[in-house]
Design brief:
heterodimer; A: about 350 residues; mainly alpha; ABC transporter involved in vitamin B12 uptake, BtuC; 2 strands; B: alpha/beta; six-stranded mixed β-sheet; globular
Chain lengths: ~350, ~270
C-alpha cells in the first residue's frame, strides 16, 4: 500500500528532522570560541547558573537567543519559500525573488542614510525593514489584482520588477552616502542572527509557528494547485482566496525575518528543493519538513559562520549560499545517477 | 426550471474578444451528449462558463433544479467533475493523483485520506484499468493511460455529471475507441450523465445520443446525430464539402471528407 508506506516514511522523516534539530541546538549552544559541555549547558538551562558566571551569560544572553532566532528565521524562510513555490507553481520562486528583501533593504538603507536609528532609536532598523518589505508586498499584491482576481504570472513579474527598482534605489542611496553609513548598510544587508532584542526574537518565533499552523489548514488547496489553478477550482477550492491568503502570510513572514536578521538568501529556495528531491512534492510533508530543515540549516550555518574564522565572524548569508548550493548540486547529481 | 437534470438557460459568458451568447440546452439524467463545432466556435468556453472559470454575463445554469452558481465550489465539485483536454501532472503517483478526487469531500481539518477514500479511488482505478499503474509516477504513463487516470480521478469525485473536454484529441484510434467505450460503459452501468466536447464527428455520431453543434459563439442546432450531422448543416458550419452516409452496423451517420484533389477528379 503506497499511501500507508508514504505516511510511514513521512513520520519517520519528520521524527529524524526533529531529532537533528535538537542535535543542532546542542551544537549551537556548545560550539564557539569557548566550548561548553552538554551537561553544563543542560544544567544551566534547567537549573539556572551563577548569575555572574561568564558561561551562564554566554548561554542565556548570546547563544540561546541566536539558536532560537536561527530556528525561527530558518524555519520561517523555508516555510515562506515552499508556500510561494506552491502558489506560483514555480520552483525558482523564493521570498526574495518577489522583492521582499529589496524592499526591506531599501527601508533600512533609508533609515541609516537619514540617521533615523540615531535620532529615534535602534528599533527603527527592524521597523523600517518591515515597512519596506510591507510596501513591496502591498505594491505586488495591488498591481497584480484586476477586477478582484489575482493574475499569478503578473504577480511574479511585478515582484521581480519591484525588486529591481528597490535594489536600484538602494544602490543610489549607497552611492551618495558617507562611508560610515555605507558600512552600516552593507553590514545589515549581509545578515546576522545577532539580535539583542529578545522581544523581536519571540515575535519571529511566534509568527513563524502561527504561519506554519495556518498554512497547514490550506494544505489541501496547496496540493490541488499542483494541477493548476483551474483544476484546483474544479476540485472545490476558491483558488483566488487561497492564493491571496497564502501570499500575504508568506510575504509578511519573510518581511519579519528580513527586518530582524537582514538578508539571508538561499534558505527559502534550497530547503524546499532538497525535500522535494528526497520525499516528493506533497505539501502535507513539505510544510512541516521545510520548517524543520530550514531551522536546522540556519542554526548549523550560524555555528560555521561564527567559528570558521574565529574570533571574527562571517556573514551567515555567505555560509547559507555556499553550503546550500553545494548540497543541492550533490543531491541533484545523485538523483540524475539514480534516474 | 426543475424538470431537466441539467439545464442551461439563455446563458452568456466569454472574454472581451469572444462571447458565447444565448445558449439554452438541457440534458436528461443518464444521457450521453456531445458538443461539436469548428475551432473557436465556443465549445471549451461553454465548459469554462459552466465551471465558473470565466464570469457569467447573462442567464443561469441549473443542476437538478438548483442554480449551479449559487452552490458552493465544494458542492459543485461533488456533483460535476471535469476532465480537461490536457492532463496537468506534477511529480506524483497515479494513486495520489486519483485520490485528489476525494478532496471535495474533505473538510479543512481533514488532512489525510480515509480508508473509504482509498477504497473508492482503487475501485475507479480498477474500472479504468489504471490500478496496475497505481505506484508509478503520472509522468511515466502514456497519453492514453494518463487520460484514463484523469477519468479515474474525475469518477473518484463521484459526480452525477461528467464533463470532458476533447478526451480523445491526443490519442491514436485504438485509445480513442477504448476511452469512449469506457465512458459509454460508465454511462450505461453507473447512470453517469456525460457531456463531452469532441472534434471527431464520426466518433461523436457513434457514441452520443444527442449532439449540440456550436458555431461562432452560438448554438447552431441540437438533436440526435441523424438530425445534426446532415450535409447541409456541416457544409454551412464547417464550410467544407463532405459526403454523409450511414454506418451499416450502427445505422449512425458517417462523414467522409472530400479533398480538393477528389473534387477536381469528380468534375
Amino acid at each position: 500500500m503506497l499511501t500507508q508506506n508514504k505516511y510511514f516514511k513521512w513520520i519517520i522523516a519528520l521524527a529524524v528532522l526533529l531529532a537533528v534539530l535538537f542535535v543542532s541546538v546542542g551544537i549551537g549552544l556548545s560550539v564557539g570560541e569557548l566550548k561548553l559541555g552538554l551537561t553544563d549547558i543542560l544544567r544551566m538551562l534547567f537549573h539556572g547558573g551563577d548569575d555572574g558566571s561568564m558561561e551562564y551569560m554566554l548561554i542565556s544572553k548570546i547563544r540561546l537567543p541566536r539558536v532560537i532566532l536561527g530556528i525561527a528565521v530558518g524555519g520561517a524562510l523555508g516555510l515562506a519559500g515552499v508556500i510561494l513555490q506552491g502558489i506560483y507553481r514555480n520552483p525558482l520562486v523564493e521570498p526574495f525573488t518577489l522583492g521582499i528583501s529589496g524592499g526591506a533593504s531599501l527601508g533600512v538603507a533609508f533609515t541609516i542614510v537619514f540617521g533615523l536609528h540615531i535620532t529615534l532609536g535602534s528599533f527603527m532598523l527592524p521597523l523600517s525593514g518591515f515597512v519596506g518589505a510591507f510596501v513591496v508586498i502591498f505594491l505586488v499584491y495591488t498591481l497584480s489584482s484586476r477586477n478582484g482576481n489575482i493574475n499569478i504570472q503578473n504577480m511574479l513579474l511585478t515582484g521581480v520588477m519591484v525588486s529591481f527598482i528597490a535594489s536600484s534605489a538602494m544602490m543610489f542611496l549607497m552611492a551618495t552616502t558617507s562611508s560610515d553609513n555605507l558600512h552600516g548598510i552593507v553590514f545589515w544587508i549581509m545578515g546576522s542572527l545577532d539580535e539583542p532584542d529578545t522581544g523581536l526574537i519571540k515575535l519571529t518565533l511566534i509568527a513563524s509557528l502561527i504561519v506554519l499552523f495556518v498554512s497547514y489548514l490550506f494544505v489541501q488547496p496547496l496540493n490541488a494547485l499542483r494541477l493548476g489553478e483551474e483544476k484546483a477550482m474544479h476540485l472545490g477550492f476558491n483558488t483566488n482566496v487561497v492564493i491571496r491568503v497564502l501570499f500575504v502570510m508568506a510575504s509578511l513572514l519573510a518581511g519579519i525575518c528580513v527586518s530582524v536578521s537582514g538578508v539571508i538568501g538561499f534558505v527559502g529556495l534550497i530547503i524546499p528543493h532538497v525535500l522535494r528531491l528526497l520525499f516528493g512534492s506533497d505539501y502535507r510533508f513539505l510544510l512541516v519538513g521545510s520548517f524543520l530543515l530550514g531551522g536546522i540549516f540556519l542554526v548549523l550555518s550560524d555555528v560555521v559562520a561564527r567559528t570558521i574564522i574565529s574570533p571574527n565572524e562571517l556573514p551567515i548569508g555567505v555560509i547559507t549560499g555556499i553550503i546550500g548550493g553545494v548540497v543541492f548540486l550533490l543531491l541533484m547529481s545523485q538523483n540524475r545517477k539514480k534516474s | 426550471m426543475g424538470e431537466a437534470f441539467f439545464h442551461i438557460d439563455n446563458f452568456s459568458c466569454g472574454y472581451p474578444s469572444f462571447k458565447l451568447s444565448g445558449i439554452s440546452l438541457s440534458l436528461n439524467k443518464g444521457s450521453f451528449s456531445g458538443i461539436i463545432g469548428p475551432n473557436g466556435s465556443g465549445k471549451t468556453t461553454l465548459f469554462r462558463g459552466i465551471t465558473s472559470s470565466i464570469a457569467t454575463l447573462e442567464g443561469s445554469i441549473y443542476l437538478k433544479g438548483k442554480n449551479l452558481h449559487k452552490l458552493s465550489l465544494k458542492e459543485r465539485a461533488q456533483n460535476i467533475a471535469i476532465v480537461s483536454q490536457f492532463v496537468d501532472i506534477d511529480q506524483m503517483s497515479v494513486e495520489d493523483y486519483v485520490l485528489m478526487g476525494r478532496m471535495p469531500y474533505h473538510n479543512r481539518f481533514q488532512f489525510f485520506e480515509s480508508k473509504d477514500d482509498l477504497g473508492k479511488a482503487h475501485r475507479y482505478m480498477q474500472l479504468t484499468d489504471v490500478f496496475k499503474h497505481k505506484d508509478k509516477l503520472m509522468t511515466e504513463l502514456s497519453g492514453g493511460e494518463q487520460q484514463r487516470a484523469a477519468i479515474a480521478r474525475a469518477l473518484t469525485q463521484e459526480p452525477e455529471l461528467l464533463l470532458l473536454d476533447e478526451p480523445t484529441s491526443h490519442l491514436d484510434i485504438t485509445h480513442q475507441v477504448r476511452i469512449l467505450d469506457l465512458l459509454h460503459r460508465l454511462n450505461q452501468e453507473m447512470g453517469l450523465t456525460v457531456l463531452m466536447v469532441i472534434h471527431d464527428l464520426n466518433l461523436a455520431s457513434e457514441y452520443c445520443d444527442q449532439l449540440m453543434l456550436f458555431n461562432e459563439g452560438q448554438l447552431f442546432t441540437q438533436g440526435t446525430p441523424e438530425e445534426v450531422l446532415t450535409f447541409d448543416t456541416i457544409e454551412k458550419v464547417y464550410r467544407t464539402p463532405v459526403i454523409t452516409r450511414t454506418n451499416p452496423y450502427s445505422n449512425k451517420p458517417v462523414i467522409f471528407l472530400v479533398s480538393e484533389k477528389m473534387m477536381k477528379k469528380s468534375k
